[in-house]
Amino acid sequence: MNALWLPLLVALPAVMSLVVAISGRWPNLREGVSVATALALLAGIAGFIGDVTAGGRPSFTLFEILPGASLTFTLEPIGLLFAMIASGLWSLTTVYAAGYMRGNAEHAQTRFFVCFALAISAAIGIAFAGNLMTLFIFYEMLTLSTYPLVTHHGDAESRDGGRVYLGILLTTSIGFFLPAIVATWLLTGSITFTDGGLMAGSGLGALGAGLLYALFLYGTGKAALMPFHRWLPAAMVAPTPVSALLHAVAVVKAGVFIVLKLTVYVFGVDFLAETGASQPMMWIATITVLGASLIAMTKDNLKARLAYSTVSQLSYIVLGATMASSLGILGGSMHIAMHAFAKITLFFCAGAIYTATHRKNVSDLDGLGYAMPITFSAFFIASLSLIGIPPMGGIWSKWYLMEGAADAGHIAIILVLSLSSLLNIVYLLEIPTRAFFHNPRPDTPRNWQEAPWACVIPLSITAAGCIVWFLYPLPFTALLSPWAPQ
């Protein structure tokens, strides 16, 4: 396909957000436009699969912002994967959001769908970014476009959560990410993403490279590395479709995608392996994996538990990058997709439970599996995928992450991944166990049933996706062939 399509695809959701705004008085039309735009976006991105898989790197420059810093869009394997996930799950999330927002009589529904479209536009801009300047611009656009979604309810709790969200993400990006971009330009004379990385000829030693790498990773606050992770649990005050957007479709996936992209195209896997510059951040990621899992075990609120689960799971992808192994990059890239399908299913289920019963806490879910068998079965399937148990797709990303750790000689990382999986069992499987094997609470009405079909159908499809990715992992390895075992 012509590279001119890249900026057009980035602009498509933003332009169509105007149509969504105009059609606000007709909810069916508004949501139909959103779904149609999502499907058109997915089809347009899919048109590049053959070119990128064959080794092509379509690129298009719109204009130069500063000397040597242009607004450039380039498509490569990891970016194509992220764009496919974001656009593919957008349509399902829109259908789900229609059922959730109407079922809970939420206000300002048109504003919600407009901001949702703008956020997807920013996420696609991140996926297609050809240099650090373009990446930074769309990163900030994503933060600003999702802020109204986080504060959607407009109450004091939402405003407080929004301040934490905006404060941490803007502070880290301006305080860390932007200086790291300037330092990269001064060291290498370029900010363009390059196969093999920019740092090999920079003369930067292990200490300097380690500090710059840490600046980039902490500057990418959306990756939720401790201690800059609090924005993510704080954002759980938003409606559940927003939580799905944050945790599976756009925001956090943008963060860990950027970590992978910086590792591969700015530093280079070989450079990091030779200098060991990424190892300090590798251990920060292990602390985040285990620490967030332990915190998740203490949370009774279902969305809070899932939020800390996301903090932990994101660091799996950061581990894949920081262990400086091609197999680690493959495992981290695959986990973007595997985690997306599993985690969006879990949040869809949490929202469906709230819509049908208005219960938010794990301790209140006893016996609800008989009233909502589809929802809790989907929750069980997605939980198994996150844990990494076949026949669910999550096994493949964890398999390659462990292979990458063994390849890089990091045996301790294999133990961390194994221990984390055991912790996942404790805090995830408690939910379907309570639902199916505990007696209902005495105050549980007998007439409770599944949430509206617009909620149940999307969560059923994403749960099925967890199984499909187990059966058909080869499309991932074909796309990510530069890091796949030969």
TrEMBL record:
Q: Which domain of life is it from?
A: Bacteria
Where is the protein found, in the record's own terms? Endomembrane system; Membrane
Major localization listed first in the record, in broad terms: membrane
Does the keyword section mention Transmembrane? yes
Task: Identify the InterPro entries for this entry.
Answer: CPA3_Na-H_Antiporter_A, ND/Mrp_TM
Any stretches that span the bilayer, and where are they?
Answer: 33-53, 65-90, 110-139, 164-186, 198-219, 231-260, 280-298, 310-330, 336-356, 368-389, 409-430, 451-472
Q: Where is the NADH:quinone oxidoreductase/Mrp antiporter transmembrane domain?
A: 129-423
Output a single Gene Ontology CC term carried by this record: membrane
* Keyword annotations: Membrane, Transmembrane, Transmembrane helix
Membrane topology per the entry is:
Multi-pass membrane protein
Work out whether the entry's keyword set contains Hydrolase. no
Which Pfam families is this protein grouped with?
Answer: Proton_antipo_M
Q: Could you identify this protein by its name?
A: Cation:proton antiporter
Native species: Salinisphaera orenii MK-B5
Q: What is the lineage of its organism?
A: Bacteria, Pseudomonadati, Pseudomonadota, Gammaproteobacteria, Salinisphaerales
